[in-house]
Amino acid sequence: MATPVPEKKYSHQIALVSAPWPVFSRPSIQLGVLKAYLKNALPELDVASHHFFLSLARAIGYPVYQALSRNTWPAESVYAALLYPEREARISAFFRKQAKQHTALAQIDFSELVQKVKTATDAFIRQTHWQSLDLAGFSVCLCQLTASLYFIQKIRQTAPDLPLIAGGAIIGGHTAGDLLAAFPEIDLMVTGEGELPLTRIMRYLKHQGQVRSMPSGGGIVSRTPATDPDANEFSQLPDLKGLPAPDFSDYFRLLAGFPPENQFFPTLPLEASRGCWWRSAGTGPNRQNRPSGCAFCNLNLQWQGYRTKSARQVIHEVTALSEKHKVLSVAFMDNVLPPKQSSEIFTALGATGKDFHFFGELRAATPYTMLETLAAAGVEEVQIGIEALSSRLLKKLNKGTTAMDNMEIMKHCEALGIQNTANLILHFPGSDAADVEETLRAIGFARFFRPPQTVRFWLGMGSPVWENPRDFGLTAICNHPHHKTLFPEPICRQVRFMSQNYRGDKQKQKTLWQPVIHAVTSWQADYRKLHAEPYSDPILTLHDGGAFLILRERRITGAPATHRLEGTSRKIYLFCTCQQRFETIKDRFAPLAAAKIRSFLKLMTDKGLMFEAGDVYLSLAVPARQYAQPSVPGYTTC
């Protein structure tokens, strides 16, 4: 007579896992937020957050890990070779081809790397008591798909009855259901934000003893149809006011256990908002005629609408977590910092007198006064949604900004010593020769400021381009071809991945944008040379003498070029510290004939000292000292 298998008791223990390849020098914001929320909602629950990517970074070396984490396809290749060892030769050849494009990856021995990763990963899986847990959940974001699938398959072999769920930014929409169908080891998928769905899953598990029969709906994708035909795809918090501060204790405990030579000061990831207010601004009453969000962007598929924390809440989290973990570096993970709360937040943080180092993402229309507040608080690095230096192309991208806006904020960042890590999107479907010509002209004026990186347009599932392909000249859409290297053909036929491919004008775009690639490469090289020495001044500086001013332009060879402006010429140049329309300039200096003003402005643009676009003008020199209120009657700051 067979011995009955005892029913597994609810142990009040779960594990949340973040697999490689996130940035190793900061904890997973997803794990930190979920752990804190679950502990608050279900006090009896013991939540272990496994930031395994940090352990792997130590095992293979921080420089190698960092190089991989910055390059999606090489990173995904590593665990793909472990998932499908029979494909390792093909994947290895693909990795080597990809690595040639990145100096930091070129010397990596792929087979040796794969073996190191396997040894470290399998050891972690063996050492964790999965059988004693109620559930294991995986946060799957950029570069984490193959790694998470490998973990899930290996853990399933160790703990056949353990509920395994996954959620994250790159498995929303169609991808969630497709992966669930393709990988039977996964029990449930969470789409959208995880707090409410995960809490519901835990309560269902406690009462039912399993999760596979849990119906779909409300942010949960399962193999059981929804009982409510009107069930929403998302189930998210109505606001962020009740969110507890993230819990990163597991990450810092892991790091503290490393030998001294492997320890470092991490960055705290925090959030002041969720979603994108620009995307949300395109929805709702009286806004039906404006496209919603940037045309290329699919970063907000996990959220509906835009929500912010209160300024007091953000200030408390920054100060409390900084003091708890004894670190001063903070990265705001928001898609864009909240425009209304940021002034209060950073004014208060600046008033603490602490030497914070902040990172955040901004829109190009952020005014100078806000940038000044951010810089005073310790914002030393930002990523601004530049995307293009052509107003025509920016309109196609639905950025809601202009080339002049981008030029102005690049200048202000230079003046304030804020490092702007922006991108230029090339090869956007439907861009044309006029877009390229306008971009090349703008680069000639922007050469004084930190250059952006060029990135090729990639088609993301759920982006406006993907949703409306014909509007952008796309004739067909399919998975990105690199997936055929990483996954077997049946998986590629079954799963619609977040990274998509298309037929359209790709070859035309590649040829069209070559001059811009060369121009930006030259711009980057010149900027590096002119800032090779410590404490290098900005390239074009303004030195105000009261009745006159001197413009000084540093050059790679030879002495700096200098220009002197006196009287009204000086006043006009200072008046255009921020962009000004010609009509405004003309009215401000009314006693002077319009023709003379126009002549002076043309002289300045011909010399590359001012930028003009659409009869709007911007002086390009930054003060040798940070902006001070010029002694010009009627002058107003930006």
Question: Could you explain how this protein is built, in words?
Answer:
Helices cover 40% and strands 15% of the residues. With 638 residues, the protein is α/β, with parallel strands linked by helices. The chain has three domains: 13-71 and 119-221, Rossmann fold (3-Layer(aba) Sandwich); 311-530, pyruvate-formate lyase- activating enzyme (Alpha-Beta Horseshoe), CATH 3.80.30; 540-623, Arc Repressor Mutant, subunit A (Orthogonal Bundle), CATH 1.10.10.10. Strand 1, helix 1 and strand 2 (46-50) form a beta-alpha-beta unit. It is globular, with a radius of gyration of 27 Å.
Write the layout of secondary structure elements.
Elements: E1 13-17, H1 29-41, E2 46-50, H2 52-60, H3 62-69, H4 72-83, H5 88-99, H6 110-127, E3 135-139, H7 145-158, E4 164-167, H8 174-182, E5 188-190, H9 195-208, E6 220-221, H10 249-256, E7 268-270, E8 273-274, H11 277-280, E9 307-308, H12 311-325, E10 329-332, H13 342-351, E11 357-362, H14 368-377, E12 379-384, H15 391-396, H16 403-416, E13 419-420, E14 423-426, H17 433-446, E15 453-456, E16 459-460, H18 464-467, E17 476-479, H19 483-486, H20 489-494, E18 499-503, H21 506-512, H22 514-530, E19 540-544, E20 548-553, E21 561-566, H23 567-575, E22 580-581, H24 582-588, H25 594-606, E23 610-613, E24 616-619, E25 622-623
Parallel strand pairs: 1-2, 1-3, 3-4, 4-5, 7-10, 10-11, 11-12, 12-13, 14-15, 19-25
Antiparallel strand pairs: 5-6, 8-9, 16-18, 17-18, 19-20, 20-21, 22-24, 23-24
Helix pairs in contact: 2-3, 2-6, 4-5, 4-6, 4-7, 6-7, 12-13, 13-14, 14-16, 17-22
